[in-house]
From TrEMBL:
Gene Ontology CC annotations of this record: cell outer membrane; efflux pump complex
Location(s), subcellular: Cell outer membrane
Gene Ontology molecular functions: efflux transmembrane transporter activity; porin activity
Source organism per UniProt: Flavobacterium resistens
Protein name: Outer membrane protein TolC
Length: 443
């Protein structure tokens, strides 16, 4: 039933004031389907296909159509030697051309040899893989943020439950002290201390309620969920289970590392594309045109109007051989090489960082598990002390100070436990991330 609810929410959206029970898996699935970051990463994957098509287009024939209509109110004249026309020693000023000229045609260009095109085609597969890995990394980042905020919401809610329980118990003590005060069996200072205690607890409750709202809003933001949605988080989501020891993961399988390696591969292709500036290029060109000329606008005119139409065509090869570019190409190649070497340093640093993340996560897991076990025992003892102190107080064997101290100790033990659970769960997420297994949280 929960899965059906989540599917409906993901497909049609959440209505105002809706309420839904979210397991961690439900929250993660919803975030991956609705968060803008995840959607944009998938759009980038889709867009990469169009970028690849753009690169491939450079290897395909480029065909275009063109046309023009030109009116020459004044035709340029050319001065020529009259000897060519049987008038030696004279100069003839002749006008060549017509008042109107119209031209229409098709042109084709086909690259035969262009090293930059060939390099771009080889880089196309790497381009696609880069965006696919980036999409995976984005999903992992969304999972990590949602999981950490999900656990933080739980801790704040547990704190509120504890404060509510403390407030309820302190209210009962207040009623007892007030009854004793009314009967002359307690001092006014004792009643005032209880009232102050209740006021402080209530203030803490209000602060925690505000923190819960802020934390829930952050969680819903990271999920891409409407802020007005009311969420319910099952308690069993937060059981702290000791993590089993595993071999040190191979950081070269981590998404962050794979993305950098793919980026390095693309930079190598970029360097080769720049080096293509040293190579000659050869292309085939062809064109077919139809031209009309005459003393009036050629369109729809006939030879009887003095307008004549004719066609012409041309086929050729264009060869471009770079000889000297002012060392510009060499400078670009060296810049591309610097980018590669800089990224390689980032890769080395990232490997160290990923290994550090795993070892730190394991240390945090171990430390927090010990803390949880200690705090569980502290809670048990604090609960017993509070129960015994309360009974002794009602029997007049303990002072109000003893009772308030016992309540404070019990509340502090509860808070320490919930914080330890939060730290453990966050460390658990970090450990799963360091092993490259964040996707397992949605399986």
């Amino acid at each position: 039933m929960k899965k059906i609810i989540v599917i409906l929410l993901c497909t049609v959206g959440l209505s105002a004031n809706a309420q839904v029970t979210l397991t961690l898996k439900d929250a993660l699935v919803y975030a991956l389907q609705n968060k803008a970051d995840a959607k944009k990463a998938k759009l980038e994957v889709e867009n990469s296909e169009y970028k690849i098509q753009e690169i491939r287009s450079r290897a395909l024939p480029q065909i275009s159509a063109n046309g023009n209509l030109t009116h020459n109110p004044i035709i340029q004249t050319t001065v020529i030697d009259g000897a060519g026309f049987g008038q030696p020693g004279t100069t003839i000023q002749a006008a060549f051309g017509q008042k109107w000229t119209s031209n229409a045609g098709l042109s084709l260009t086909q690259a035969i040899f262009d090293q930059s095109v060939f390099t771009g085609l080889r880089a196309a597969k790497s381009t696609r893989e880069f965006y696919q890995i980036n999409d995976q990394l984005t999903e992992e980042q969304v999972i990590e943020r949602v999981a950490n905020n999900y656990y933080s919401v739980y801790v704040q809610r547990e704190r509120l439950k504890l404060l509510d329980s403390t407030y309820f118990n302190t209210t009962k003590v207040h009623d007892v002290v007030k009854g004793q005060f009314d009967n002359g069996l307690a001092k006014k200072i004792d009643l005032d201390r209880i009232i102050v205690k209740l006021s402080n607890i209530d203030t803490d409750r209000q602060q925690v309620k505000n923190q819960i709202e802020l934390q829930e809003n952050a969680l819903k933001f990271y999920m891409g969920m409407p802020i007005e949605t009311q969420i319910i988080i099952p308690k069993e989501e937060f059981e702290a289970v000791p993590a089993s020891l595993t071999e040190v993961p191979n950081v070269e399988n981590r998404t962050e590392y794979l993305l950098l390696k793919k980026q390095e591969e693309l930079l190598v292709f970029n360097k080769k594309a720049v080096e293509a500036g040293y190579y000659p290029t050869l292309s085939l060109t062809a064109g077919y045109n139809y031209i009309g000329q005459g003393p009036q606008m050629p369109w729809f005119a006939k030879p009887s109007d003095g307008v004549y139409w004719s066609d012409y065509a041309a086929i050729g090869l264009n060869l471009h051989v770079p000889i000297f570019t002012g060392f510009g190409t060499r400078a670009k190649v060296r810049q591309a090489d610097i980018e590669i070497r800089s990224l390689q340093e980032d890769i080395k640093d990232t490997k160290l960082s990923l290994d550090l993340d795993y070892r730190n996560a394991m240390a945090q897991i171990d430390n927090n598990m010990v803390t949880i076990q200690n705090q569980q025992e502290n809670m048990r003892l604090a609960r017993e002390i509070l129960s015994n102190t309360k009974n002794n107080y009602l029997q007049g064997l303990a002072s109000l100070t003893d009772l308030l101290d016992a309540e404070n100790a019990h509340q502090e033990a509860q808070n320490n436990y919930t914080r330890a659970v939060l730290n453990y769960k966050i460390a658990e997420v970090a450990l799963i991330k360091s092993k490259g297994e964040l996707k397992t949280l949605i399986k």
